[in-house]
Design brief:
Blueprint (H helix, E strand, L loop, with lengths): L2 H26 L10 H8 L10 H7 L7 H29 L6 H4 L16 H11 L2 H7 L5 H21 L2 H17 L2 H17 L6 H15 L4 H8 L7 H17 L1 H12 L2 H7 L12 H26 L6 H11 L11 H23 L11 H36 L3 H12 L6 E4 L2 H11 L9 E4 L6 H10 L19 H14 L2 E3 L11 E6 L2 E6 L12 H13 L1 H10 L5 H23 L3 H14 L4 H14 L12 H5 L6 H8 L5 H13 L3 H14 L4 H13 L3 H12 L9 H17 L3 H14 L4 H13 L3 H14 L4 H13 L3 H14 L4 H13 L3 H14 L4 H13 L3 H14 L4 H13 L3 H14 L5 H17 L1
Parallel strand pairs: 1-2, 1-3
Antiparallel strand pairs: 3-5, 4-5
Helix pairs in contact: 1-4, 1-6, 2-21, 4-6, 4-7, 4-8, 4-18, 6-18, 6-19, 8-9, 9-11, 12-13, 14-17, 15-18, 16-18, 18-19, 20-21, 25-26, 26-27, 26-28, 27-28, 31-32, 32-33, 33-34, 33-35, 34-35, 35-36, 35-37, 36-37, 37-38, 37-39, 38-39, 39-40, 39-41, 40-41, 41-42, 41-43, 42-43, 43-44, 43-45, ...
């Protein structure tokens, strides 16, 4: 075969052979359903209530025909489309490798004899095949070529743009640049990474074209063709505007599309991973693209040999680095992304796989192995002295070694990655979805989850049936947004309640309303949560495990904790986990592989097993619970909740329970991966250990989730009866939540004789405070006062006891007694901060503003930046109508705490009353952003407009005031009359 025939085969026929072979491999290893990465695409195409997407318009156009397929075939068709795109990408890669010039170094120029410096040695077929194999068998590429993630289409467009660039360098035909501009515009609308690569392509064009690039007509034509491709940005906004299902208008959809690309480009982890990926792909590509001079000043034979050695070593370093990346080196994009995914939620499965960098790395590998085949497989045209027979034999041996390595290394890569591909594309995910499907009742139910990918997975599984069950899938993270609830009501008008009108399009629904709404839904529907969870939904409701899902039930009347599982419930769930044992055994084996899907499945099963273990432990089945915790850790070694539960369970079974040491913050125990208790529990499931129950109870109490906090304190006391502090918190919680009888029961238990030291003074005082508050709530005011007075007599120097008595008198409006008690506080310690604050408050309520002012002044002398004292000083000035004097302390508060709304409101009032209307308006408008339903804000804005004789603004704000203000007030009547006056004046 002569050089010309060989070139035609390598450049034209070989790419198609590679594409056909790759397509066969991908079809044989094709995913027959979905992976977590392909789930968003398949779910969108298979959705019955079709909602137009916001981004990726080209992908949307090309996948529209797949909606016509039967539901069971849609995922297969989409996956096959991805395989086709992957095969064509490898064909383009092979063509690009064949078009790379081998005249970059002096050594290459003395050996390559072809006219265009394209590789023409007998082994010229090796570089394209090697590059295609290393790229096509790389794990991220292989995964995306066998599942419909949409990434293969993006990479195909990128590869075509690279091909156009190389074709133009070879032929200088401008049709290639025209195609490049149009395709680049189309690709940009579909893939934000093309925006980031634009500078690199412009540099390459300038490099190839030189000064011709700056020709005005050329630039205008390229910009025009690129803009024609970019018009595809308008497609999805137009589809959304015309769709009856979409709540998004044309301009909003366009803004969202552009904003999503901008945010993705600015996302720090993406940029940091791209930096490292660029070092192992773009940097080698830049270096091998330079055409080095024939000499560097030293023209001797030794200098020439030294230069050749340096080039060979540098090229070898690049080749080894690119190969290491293909085998998932620690600094490769895949492993860096995996580390990031471990820190994020399960929903992060769809992050970008950085396939463009793997493509460029394979392009470099193809060129580099071609460089060595040329260097060792061909003699220079003019060299002296001639190579010795030993050197020729060594070169032939090295050439054979590179050819053999070009086949062995990809084979090793395939051997390494095939098990991961089988696990990702195997039935494990489908088995999990089928297990949930089998747990669901035949009737339509409401399925709740804060994991969108889990909702999509089960929805996609159910849509394979004809007809699909009419379950309502609800993303609880979006329930606070009116637009989401409106869409649910539109789709299920008879089953999902209609919301009252929202104050503004961007307002969020109050958690109390959501709690009531979920309770209402549970009365008319069967509600299931798809994983263990917590939050304000679980104040009126509790979870009951039903295999892999959880039924929501109302608490029994007057019950604080949920009832224990019945024997029937225990047996049902035991039976499920026994049946799931073979599947979990297989998952344990494949979870150690590099597949992200297997790891996520391991986390899901681990979380469910940990929850089931905790339920068994609460039902006193300690040995069974231990087995669940152990299996949970085998499926997901990162499950910190299961690890803590296993450790404590082992101590209990050994008769030596040891509470786990808890740090001051969540990070002290769990590290930087979890920033809050919410994140810990959402990812791992519950923790059943006294110290953690106590800490979690404190957190839930601070979030006003009183019932759930009480459950944790009760459990902490059950697991560690010596933990008196949890009992104090429980009693305090009952007082706050209006359950004084239960508080008194806990107080009585605390007072029971116990082994160990007696209660400390502070605990005795706290106990008296709690008992007094409970008695006061029951209407026994005299008894409450007696308890507190007795405590003060017993502990006259304890400021806590006196402070409690003051708060009691304030609560019961006994202001004279409160003032006397405060004076007693100040006798104990004349500059006590809390006592001075109490005196200020009492005197203000008694309208003794001089005494209040003196107490505040004394406090500010001790603590000039005490926020409460400064607020009181401003409030006293407002009450005494010294409005301008109020501004200084209020300004100081806002300097210390810019978000202090009380200071901002008081400053707005002071500015309004002192005639500084511009400053008042700014303060009220700032408050309006944070508190859009606060009636006093609209009163102030209306007054400003009224004083300025701006009737339209006054009417608008007075109307808003009347919408939110209480009706039974003089102010309400005054504004109503003024509004009538303004409206009549308009007419």
């Amino acid at each position: 075969m002569d050089i010309q025939e060989r070139s035609v085969f390598v450049q034209s026929r070989l790419p198609w052979l590679i594409a056909a072979s790759a397509l066969l491999i991908y079809l044989l290893t094709l995913n027959h359903w979905v992976s977590l990465s392909s789930l968003p695409v398949v779910a969108t195409v298979s959705a019955k209530d079709w909602l137009p997407p916001i981004n990726r318009p080209l992908h949307f156009l090309l996948t529209l025909p797949f909606r016509l397929l039967p539901p069971g075939w849609q995922s297969i068709g989409l996956n096959a489309f991805a395989a086709l795109c992957g095969a064509l990408t490898l064909a383009l890669l092979a063509r690009c490798v064949a078009l790379l010039p081998h005249d970059r170094t002096p050594e290459q120029r003395t050996r390559e004899r072809s006219e265009l410096s394209l590789l023409s040695v007998p082994t010229a077929w090796v570089p394209p095949v090697f590059a295609a194999l290393m790229c096509g068998l790389q794990l991220s590429f292989w995964e995306n070529a066998t599942a419909a993630t949409g990434e293969m289409l993006d990479l195909l467009l990128f590869a075509y743009v690279v091909r156009c660039l190389l074709e133009y360098r070879l032929s200088e035909e401008e049709k290639w640049l025209s195609r490049l501009a149009v395709v680049y515009g189309l690709a940009t609308t579909n893939n934000y990474a093309m925006i980031a690569f634009l500078p690199a392509f412009l540099v390459a064009l300038v490099w190839i074209m030189g000064k011709n690039f700056f020709d005005f007509r050329f630039l205008a034509r390229m910009v025009g063709l690129g803009a024609a491709g970019l018009t595809l940005y308008l497609l999805l906004p137009l589809v959304n505007a015309l769709s009856a299902n979409s709540e998004v208008g044309f301009w909003d959809a366009l803004r969202l599309q552009l904003a999503s690309q901008k945010n993705a480009l600015l996302f720090f982890p993406i940029r940091s991973i791209a930096f490292w990926a660029g070092l192992t792909s773009l940097v080698p590509l830049f270096v091998i693209g330079i055409r080095w001079p024939s000499s560097f000043g030293d023209t001797s034979m030794i200098g020439s040999v030294f230069t050749n050695v340096i080039f060979r070593v540098v090229h070898g370093v690049f080749l080894v680095t690119c190969l290491w990346v293909a085998f998932d080196a620690p600094f490769s994009a895949r492993l860096l992304l995996d580390k990031r995914l471990l820190q994020l939620s399960d929903d992060a499965a769809g992050l970008v796989p950085f396939l463009t960098f793997y493509f460029l790395g394979a392009l470099c590998m193809g060129y580099l192995i071609g460089y060595y085949l040329l260097a060792f497989g061909t003699e220079a045209v003019k060299t002296w002295p001639r190579a010795s027979p030993a050197a020729r034999a060594a070169n032939r041996l090295l050439t054979a070694g590179f050819c053999l390595g070009a086949l062995v290394v990809p084979a090793a890569l395939a051997w390494r990655n095939l098990p991961s591909i089988r696990s990702t594309n195997g039935p494990l995910l489908e088995d999990y979805a089928r297990a949930i499907e089998q747990a669901l009742p035949t009737d339509s139910v409401v399925l709740l989850s804060d994991r969108p990918n889990l909702l999509s997975l089960i929805d996609t599984q159910l849509r394979r049936k004809e007809p699909a069950p009419h379950h309502i899938f609800v993303d609880t993270r979006l329930l606070a947004y009116p637009v989401y609830q409106h869409s649910l009501h539109k789709r299920f008008p008879g089953r999902w309640p209609e919301l009252p009108p929202a104050p503004s399009p961007y307002s969020k629904i109050d958690s109390a309303f959501l709690m009531q709404e979920i309770g209402y839904l549970n009365r008319s529907n069967a509600l299931y949560y798809m994983h263990p969870s917590f939050g304000y939904y679980f104040e009126p409701l509790y979870l009951r495990p039903h295999r892999l899902i959880y039924r929501l039930h109302f608490y029994p009347t007057n019950a604080v904790t949920p009832p224990l599982l019945s024997e029937q419930e225990l047996e049902e769930n035991r039976g499920f986990w026994r049946q799931a044992a073979p599947q979990l055994g297989q998952l344990k084996r494949v979870a150690r592989l590099a597949g992200h899907d297997a790891r996520v499945l391991g986390r899901w099963y681990s979380r469910a097993l940990n929850y089931w273990g905790v339920e068994l432990q609460r039902n006193a089945h300690w040995d069974e619970a231990a087995q669940c915790f152990e299996l949970a850790l085998q499926l997901s070694p990162e499950n910190v909740a299961a690890e803590i539960n296993r450790t404590f369970n082992a101590g209990l079974r050994a008769g030596k329970p040891r509470p786990v040491e808890v740090g001051k913050t969540v990070e002290d125990k769990f590290g930087s991966r979890y920033r809050s208790w919410d994140a810990v529990l959402a990812a791992n499931g519950p923790i059943d250990e006294p110290a953690f129950c106590f800490r979690l109870g404190q957190t839930l109490a601070q979030q006003s989730l009183f019932r759930q906090a009480a459950i944790q304190f009760i459990r902490a006391g059950q697991l560690d009866p010596s933990n008196v502090e949890s009992a104090f918190w429980l009693a305090n919680l009952y007082v706050q939540s209006g359950a004084p009888e239960k508080a008194l029961e806990v107080i009585a238990q605390i007072r029971e004789p116990r082994t160990g030291n007696a209660l400390a003074v502070t605990n005795q005082v706290e106990l008296a405070r709690l008992e007094a508050l409970a008695q006061y709530t029951l209407g026994k005011t005299e008894l409450a006062e007696k308890l507190l007075l007795d405590t003060v007599r017993h502990y006259p120097k304890d400021t806590g006891a006196v402070e409690t008595l003051v708060q009691f008198y304030l609560l019961s409006n006994q202001l004279t007694n409160a003032l006397e008690t405060v004076e007693h506080q100040l006798k104990i310690k004349s500059d006590e901060v809390r006592a001075l604050l109490n005196k200020t408050l009492v005197c203000m309520r008694l309208q003794s503003y001089d005494q209040a002012s003196n107490a505040t002044a004394a406090l500010l002398r001790k603590e000039p930046n005490n926020v409460m004292a400064l607020l009181n000083k401003g409030a006293i000035a407002i009450q005494t109508k010294a409005y301008r004097e109020a501004l200084e302390p209020l300004n100081q508060v806002l300097k210390l705490e810019p978000a202090n709304r009380a200071a901002l409101m008081n400053r707005a009032i002071a500015n309004l009353q002192s005639g500084q209307l511009d400053d008042a308006r700014r303060d009220y408008e700032e408050l309006q952003k944070a508190l859009p339903t606060l009636h006093t804000v609209y009163y102030g804005l209306g007054e400003i407009a009224y004083q300025r004789k701006q009737a339209a603004d006054a009417i608008k704000n007075y109307n808003e005031y009347l919408k939110y203000a209480p009706t039974e007030t003089e102010e309400y009547a005054k504004i109503s009359e003024r509004l009538k006056e303004l409206k009549s004046a308009e007419h």
